[in-house]
Amino acid sequence: MTRPLDDWLEQIQQRHSGSIELGLERCRKVWRRMGCPAPARRVITVAGTNGKGSTVAGIESGLTSVGRIVGAYTSPHLLRYNERIRIAGSEADDKEIIAGFEVVEQALGSTRLTYFEFVTLAALATMSQANLDDAVLEIGLGGRLDAVNLIDADLSVITAIGLDHQEYLGHDRESIGREKAGVMRAGQTVICSDRDPPSTVFERAQVLGARLIRIGADFDVSRDIGATGRDAWAYFFADLSCRLPVSMSGGHQADNLAAALTAVVLLEPDARSELGRTAAAVAGCRVRGRLERIRGTPEVVVDVGHNPLAAGVIRDYLDSAGHDRCLAVVGMLRDKNVESVAAVLDTHVSRWYCAGLGGERGQTAEAVAARIMSATQTKATRTFETVSLAIDAAIDDAGSDGLVLVFGSFLTAAQAIMHIEGLDQPLASGRALV
Q1: Quick check: 57 and 287 in contact, CB under 8 A?
Q2: In which region does residue 217 sit, left (phi positive, over 0), alpha (psi from -120 to 50) or beta (all else)?
Q3: What's the first-to-final CA gap in the chain, in angstroms?
Q4: In degrees rounded to 5, what are phi and psi of residue 32?
Q5: Average of pLDDT values for 318-328?
Q6: Which of 109, 378, 379, 382 measures 20 to 30 Å from 39, CA to CA?
């Protein structure tokens, strides 16, 4: 009898280290034993620090709108493991995912893989059986040595680059940019949606002879004066222009989706001739947990952001949100830069509601509060054992005019959504956040 998906995930988590261990040799050995499965006839990879999930979703939607059969692989998941693999617009079902796991298991031999390597190879196997025209693959961490980078992309996108995972990728943007640029391939096109990319991105493109297409230089998006709401963005690329009716909150999403639309236009001639329709498909995509409003009066907004770059995006959003007070519920893993995040948001947060996160990389609410206070000198902190308790307290204190912001981790965002929406299912197994 076939084992349930949760049993598989629990076994993979136990047998394969959840820690990060960069390098392609182990993965490549197993992939070759699997027969080198290609996820689709054409592959697009998306690397960067922030904005990858939105960019993947935008490319997926745009290509689908012109009749392509598209698959996507992202990580980590928010509520269900199945979110990581989408086939023709739908999450892969348990049977399809388990079949991929079985292929990796049979090819494993004595090779030791990390959790992320195992599930990534399984995703490639699952997608290879779906007869896809295109696969859009999110790089989990870095680029050069990430397991997804086994696959040679026909086109790559590099999103905003910031400081995160510095113990693995380097301690400055130049070093991190060098790792992200590892997804480039000789002679291929790479789109960059970072408005001030590190010089290492340019250098890598020049060495490889890659065609680098940059936001602000080759394509752009700007506020459309006179338009309102979703139609308030105007897109430009070469001789093309149109409205970009972005559905998700935050001005940064316009940059992400402009890059996605540029990718679709470059890949598909039909997208160019039907630009307005394609732009609407790209801009209409939604990704959960990205400045997502999950409750009204008081308003509760949830975001998966967990680094200084994301904190800057949240700060910009708060500037335009129109609330007198922001009560921040924050739960962060201990290897994240809590101090820098708190410093960015210090003047915008009235009170911090610190929540504990469990697991190998988690930390207590008291530890989060101490780190926030050391960075901001604020004493306006409260501590709670769980995200749910912190949210309830913040809602009680917010009144009708306050904004409750919940952020700091995919785990924090997931627990917030489940609590507010009354979901009683347990979080899926295998919560490795890479």
Answers
A1: yes
A2: alpha
A3: 31
A4: -65, -40
A5: 89
A6: 109
pLDDT in tens, 375-413: 998 889 999 999 999 999 999 999 888 999 999 999 999
Distance CA 192, CA 158 (A): 5
Q: Residue 229 carries which side chain, given as an amino acid letter?
A: G
Q: Are 46 and 139 in contact (CB under 8 A)?
A: yes
CB count within 10 Å of CB 286 equals 12
In contact, 303 and 310? CB cutoff 8 Å: yes
The phi, psi pair for 143, rounded to 5°, reads 180, -65
* For residue 308, cis peptide bond before it (omega within 30 degrees of 0): no
pTM as predicted: 0.94
Q: What is the mean pLDDT of residues 306-323?
A: 91
In contact, 249 and 291? CB cutoff 8 Å:
yes
